[in-house]
Amino acid sequence: MKNTIVATLVLIATAGFSxxxxxxxxEVYTAKCAPCHGPNGEGKAAIAKMYNxxxxxxxxxxxxxxxxxQLKQVMLKGQGKMKPVSxxxxxxxxxxxxxxxxxx
Length: 104
Ligand code: HEC
Fold this sequence. Notes:
By secondary structure, the protein is mostly helical. It is built from 6 helices and no strands. It has a single domain, classed as Cytochrome Bc1 Complex, Chain D, domain 2, CATH 1.10.760. The radius of gyration is 16 Å and the shape is elongated. Bound molecules: heme C. Heme C binds next to helix 2, helix 3, helix 4 and helix 5.
């Protein structure tokens, strides 16, 4: 009986956790990524010009082909001309990945 209760609680906790991802990620994305990548990941022309790069749309095949872990590394460690987003936590980065997956 006790085990059943524990198992049920674990299930609820895990489900709650996975629901949290994308909406929470959207908030973090809007605050920390949208200034450069635009509200829907399309990329801001002025930023691309300033960094002299092509900002790949986050919904593109190229970006979506990256694994969750690779996307997290881009945020936490930076890539090319993108500096690491120093104010983001591992958990927030995982939430942002969940949000980025909703863009495709
Ligand atoms: C200060 C501007 C800036 C911010 C803030 C920023 N990025 Fe970037 N991002 C860039 C630039 C510039 C590039 C292109 C880098 C290059 O090609 O050298 C880039 C590239 C990327 C790429 C593509 C990497 C690849 O290999 O194709 C991803 C994915 C990405 N950013 C995600 C994010 C996410 C998610 C956030 C928020 C946590 C974020 N970025 C915040 C400027 C920014």
